[in-house]
Structure formats: C-alpha cells, structure tokens
C-alpha cells in the first residue's frame, strides 16, 4: 500500500478541556509527514491444525509433553466445560506468539479506578526491589501527584523505579512533572518523543504510540488493563470516590468516573510481562537499567493459565488480533465483548456474524457517549451489518466506557489495553493477558452482565429509521476510520 496520513486519534492526544481543539490539531499536524500505512494480517491464518499438542510452563520452566497431557486430564476432571476449555487451549497454543501458556497464577479482577488505584498503591508500598511502570497517560492531577509522590518515596527507600510514559498520551503533562521524578533518581523514559529537539532516533516511528498500561512490582506482581493515571478515574463509574486526602469534602456532586477494567496477576506469568517492559526500554534506547532482581524465582500462586500477548507495529501478523479472531472463529456458546473504541475491519465483522449465524450468543457492550466523535460514529456505521448478521449491540450511556475485555464460551478471556480498531491492531504497542479457565471467565461474565444491565440495546428496526443527520455523521467518520 502507498503512504497514508498518520493514525493518531484526537482522543488520544490528552489535553485538558480548556486547552481547546487547536492544541490537539497542532499535535496531529506535526505528525502528518511521518506515517506509513500498514495492513491487518490475513484472517485465514487463524485456521490451525487440530493435532498441535498443548504445552505449558510453570515456575520451574517448560512442562514435558507427558506432564502437559496429565494436566489436561486433570482439567477434564475439574471442569464442567472441559471440552470447551481444551478446545480453546489447543487453538490458543496454535496461535503461539512466542509467549508460553503459564500455569500457577492468581488473579484479582479490578473494576474502575478507585479499586485499581487502591490495589496498585498497596503493591507499590510493599515493593522491596524495583518498580517498572509503563503507561500511556500520566496526568499531573491529584491522582498523578499521589502516584508520583509514592514512587519518589520508594526510590528514596532504595527501590529502583523505572518509568516509561508516552509522549502523545502525556502531551498536556508538564515536563517539570517528570523532571521532578527524574531528579529524585527515578529512571524516566519518554516513548517516541514528539519534540524533534529531543533527538528521536530515525528508526523509531512517531506514529507508533505506547498504549500499554503495565505496573510490575518486584517482578512478582503485574497490573494491566485499560486504566491510565488520570482524574477521569478518581471516582468509580457508579460515582464512588477514590479514597484519598480531602476526598470526602468533594463527594457531593462528584461526577461518575470512567468505566474501565484492570487485572492484577501474581505468579509465574509475571515474568512474561517483565520481558515486555524490558524490551520496550531497550527498543526506546533507555539508559541501562540499574542492577536489580528483575526475574526472581516465582512460586505458583493460584490455578489460572495465563498467556502474555503483546504487539508492536513491527510484530508479524498482529498476535493480539489473530488470537482474538481465532477464539471468535472457534466459539461454540457465547462471545461477550466490551470495548471502548470499536472500528472493526471486514475480517472481524465476518468472524462475528459467522459466529452469530451458527448459533453463538454474540453480544457487545459499547459506549453510548465518548471522548472521540469520529471513532464513535465510525463504529456506529458498522452497526447495521452486525445487527443483520445476528450480533446484539448494547450502548452504555451513563458513563464513558473505556474497558477492553472479552470472554468467550466462559473459558477464554482477555483483558488489556487493546481496542477493537485499526490503531490498536496496527500502530500501537499494546499488551493483553489471555486467561483460560472457568473461574475468571465467570467473573468476567458477571461483570459483563452488570454492564449489560446498565446499557440500552440497539433495536435493528429502530436503527434503520435513525435520522439523516446521524447517517451523515457515520458516513463522514467512516471516511477516516483507518486513521482513527
């Protein structure tokens, strides 16, 4: 394909409302000459042989084929949906992206900002060796200051803190905010700086953004999902405030925060996310990391099977995209997806409608209001095709929905930073956890049910009668969907 304009979504250029649209547009225009077009992998790549054996890793390393078979038999005896679990395990293994299926993990599902921040603060306070933090947005607000103060405190205690933040995501965060942390001894790395004066290496593409949200503590605990460090999450989507000094005085009239999902993982799979952080650090030419125990011996903490799955624009075949398509293509009962920015390509639409037509319960919870006009209407321009194909679509109007989760057949689940759009699949660094098991699948299905209850279903007949004004907005946004 020939060169295209860059794919920088206006909503991803994070400036405060009073800064105005002009500052956002300036940042976009700076990037126009520097982009190249990419394409999604061929969906046929998801067709895999049925004979590929499932192999696992534990805290002690790779498991032998014989022991892997024994583990599968044990799963058979413990799971009421063992056939579905085994099927998804085999297809997940066949889409192997170089990251193993890791046994022995404990998960904690975190809903909205307040619960997530409390868990993250507790882990940071307990850190004894190092903290590796990678985030798209790190706001200079009350929440951001509380994080930065705590990180500076841990650095003073001898815990090495390494921070990667995205240049576009933090466009509105003053340089002094990060300089203060740097002066305190924290290793601070700006991902793909948009300021040419900072000497961006020519091999690094300005259009490539770091959309990951990873917090790794002592190499033993990882947090990941969709939640940035922002005032948008200072209260829950139900209006519950994040507990901090002065919060009670602000409780009256507090607006609901964004609806989002994070996950805390303890166990051997953490090492795979640690590798991702270190790879990013090295690819961005950060100064050598201080000598710390980044890969400690990890003991089993639970029973959940986890695969770390990540992508960059240079990753062949977009593994996050392919593993999701594979799971959808092999679904037998249910596909429940919640996503913030939904601008599907043709292959994803076909996979979803094929599943619905073979009797799978395919449901989406999507935003009913958004911080990205173009993305919102570009996604809606695909509704009729999906509705005609048997997909059920719900919109949540009471909050801004920023969650990125999926649960398929109650046994295959994913949580991470990846949106269902061209930008996430082609142009961003993203990171997800794929989790296999009925327990986490059940928790995510329960969460999906709560979102569903707070949403309004799109009726196909009423949608066909929507106004010409809405159709015009969809048509206009659709013209730009590759760049969103």
Lay out the secondary structure:
Layout: H1 20-31, E1 56-58, E2 61-62, H2 65-78, H3 82-94, E3 101-111, H4 112-125, E4 130-135, H5 142-156, E5 160-166, H6 175-183, E6 187-191, E7 209-210, E8 214-217, E9 221-225, H7 247-250, E10 261-266, H8 270-283, E11 304-311, H9 319-329, E12 334-338, H10 346-357, E13 361-367, H11 373-380, H12 383-388, E14 392-396, E15 405-408, E16 412-416, H13 422-427, E17 428-436, H14 438-453, E18 456-457, H15 460-464, H16 468-478
Parallel strand pairs: 1-3, 4-5, 5-6, 7-17, 12-13, 13-14
Antiparallel strand pairs: 1-2, 3-10, 3-11, 4-8, 8-9, 9-10, 11-17, 12-15, 14-18, 15-16, 16-17
Overview of the structural elements:
This protein is of the alpha/beta class. The chain folds into 2 domains: 43-103 and 307-483, Endonuclease Chain A (Endonuclease, Chain A, 2-Layer Sandwich), CATH 3.30.870; 106-283, 2-Layer Sandwich (Endonuclease, Chain A), CATH 3.30.870. Helix content is 35%, strand content 20%. The protein has 16 helices and 18 strands. The protein has an 18-stranded mixed sheet that branches. β12 (334-338), α10 (346-357) and β13 (361-367) form a beta-alpha-beta unit. α2 (65-78) runs antiparallel to α3 and α11 packs across α16 (468-478). The longest helix has 16 residues, at 438-453. It is globular, with a radius of gyration of 22 Å. The model is unreliable at 1-36, 45-49 and 245-253 (pLDDT under 50).
